[in-house]
Amino acid sequence: MLNWFEKTAPIRAKFKTLLFIHGALSAVALGASCYAVYGGGTAAILVSAAAFVLTIVTVLVSGKLICDPYVNTVVRMEALARGDTKSPIQFTDYGDCVGRMTKAMAVFRDNAENIEAAAAVQELVVSALAGGLEQLSSGNLSYTIDESFSKDYEALRHSFNQAVAGLDGSLGRVSTSAQAVLAGSSEIRSASEDLSRRTEQQAASLEETAAAMTQVAGMVAESARNANDVRGAISAAHRDATDGTSVVKEAVSAMGAIEKSAQEISTIITVIDGIAFQTNLLALNAGVEAARAGEAGKGFAVVANEVRALAQRSADAAKDIKALITTSSSQVTQGVGLVGDTGKMLDRILTKIADVNTLIGEMAASAEAQAANVQQVNGSVTDMDKMTQQNAAMVEETTAAARNLAGEADELAELVARFKLSSGNGFVAPRRAAPAAAKPANISKPRAASLPVSGNLALKSEEDWTDF
Amino acid sequence: MKHQLLTFCIGEQFLGVDIMAVREIRAWAPTTLIPNAPEHIKGVVNLRGSVLPVIDLSCRLGWGRIDAQERHVIIVVDIGGSLHGLFVDAVNDIVTVNNQDLQSPPAVAGHKAVDLLQGVASIDDRMVMLLTLDKLVEHDDAPDRIAA
Q: Using 50, 70 and 90 to split pLDDT, how confident is the model at A458?
């Protein structure tokens, strides 16, 4: 009964019950009063007192029965409102309003608990996300939220991880690209250095070539001048040789004239010799006749002797002259021979002069051609010089651009270096080295170390650029 | 006794003839050949209209023929009343020799030589052989004999 009253009856029923009970008790009291009126005396008082006590008891009990759960529930509700979900919620088994209230409270509590749990989960999630975002903000892109959330937030965790992974990947690629850019820019820089060195060499070679060409041009001009001088000399020699030839001809003709007169003299001498001979014979004949005449012919013999002597002298003189003529003739022949040789030599000289003339003409022509070629080459060298200068300017621009690129790549590297990637920050290799591949090692490498390296390299590169 | 000789030379040899036999001394003129003449007859020449046989003296003496040149001389001699020409290289001189200077040719020379030479004389460091003119013509086959 009390159980029913306490736990099951709805409040109106409770009050109805109480009404009954109180009514009953009051009826009893009334009855008792009535009894008392009607002579019941003490019994009536007892009954009334009993009714009174019962009423008190009932009220107390009912009050307790009603109020306790009610107040407890209120307290519990207040506690619940304050957030106490742990304390057990009593009276849920009551069927009355308290029960309903406590059931509702239980529901509230459950809800609160759920909310709390959800809030806790959310708190967890938020804290995890906050932690992740903090890691993210501090640059640790390798961070993943590993502890799984409740399944509502699992998607969120996955999304977060994916986003971070995506960032990580992108930054990793950016880092790789930055490294590639750095490597490329270092290659460009070394290539630019090489190119600038080569351009310098080219410029020096061009200078040398230009100087050499100038020399060659000078020598060609000199050669042309010499050829012209030789031409003049050759013309003079030709004239002289031609004069010489005519002189030779005159000499030959003079010698011919000498020879002719010598021949004429020879003829005359032969005549004189003949005359001498005949005179001799005549003298001999005279001698013979004188001898045959004996004494009478003695004077005649003397005359004949004198005539013989004269004839002899004449013959001797003729002989001498003949000898001289012969000598003169032989000398003239020698002279003619020599003059003939001279003439031949002069002819040969003339021929050679003609040859030399031709050769000199060819030389002069080729010298002119050479000069033209040298001019061309000079022009080409000038062009090449200009282009080399342009190249040098371009190389400087390229160098500056490469330097800028390296600077930007540096900055990029610095920026990326702030992040801790799962693939690691590979800016360990100095920029000077050949294609620096990202070294996957140093994940645990303290970030701070890479920055001064870049800084040093940057300084070093400064030196290189100024070494241009 | 003195002889007056006309000395002449053939090549390197000096010979001489008695000057009395000499009629004339002529310069060389081309000779006309005689058919079938002996070797020592050079031919005939025209002597002022008359024909003169010319003897190649060198051949006659056995020294070989002489090639005729303009400076050679023909000595016209009288041999046995007829004139003959002696073809010689050159005429030297008219000399006088004493008989005692004239020596006989050596016996070893042979029979023909003794015949032809009258003697040998030494004149001016030269040996002059004196010819016997008559002997020259004895073997002569000249068809014409000209009276001197």
A: very low
Alpha-helical (H) ranges within A83-150 are 97-138
How many cross-chain Cβ pairs, A to B, lie less than 8 Å apart?
30
**pLDDT score of A427 more than 50:** no
What are the residues whose beta carbons fall under 8 Å from the beta carbon of A339, sequence distance 6 or more?
A: A248, A251, A252, A255
Domain that holds residue A69: 2-125
Chain B partners within 8 Å of A300 (Cβ) = none
Is residue A205 assigned to a domain?
yes
Structure tokens at A212: 């050499």
What is the CATH number for B96?
Answer: 2.40.50.180
| ipTM of the shown complex | 0.83
* B60: closest CA of chain A, how far (Å): 24
Nearest Cα residue to B117 out of B4, B21, B15, B5: B15
Put simply, the answer to whether B26 touches A277 (Cβ < 8 Å) is: no
Characterize the bridge pairing of strands B82-88 and B50-56. parallel
- Give the contacts of A418 (CB within 8 A, at least 6 positions apart): A139, A447
Which residues in chain A are closer than 8 Å to B27, comparing Cβ atoms? 277-278, 281
Q: Is residue A145 part of a domain?
A: no
Token pair of B67 as six digits: 């090639």
Question: B20 to chain A: which residues are within 8 Å by CB?
Answer: 291-292
Position B145 in a domain: no
Assess A151–B contact: CB distance below 8 Å, yes or no: no
Structural contact between residues B59 and B1, judged by C-beta atoms closer than 8 angstroms: no
A171 domain residue, yes or no: no
The tens digit of pLDDT for each residue in B7-54 reads 888 888 888 888 888 888 888 888 888 888 887 788 888 888 888 888
Average pLDDT on A354-381 reads 85
Looking at beta carbons, which residues of chain A come within 8 Å of B26? 281
Whether A86 contacts chain B with CB within 8 A: no
CA gap A174, A186 in Å, rounded? 17
Burial of A26 (0-12, 13-18, 19+ CB in 10 A): middle
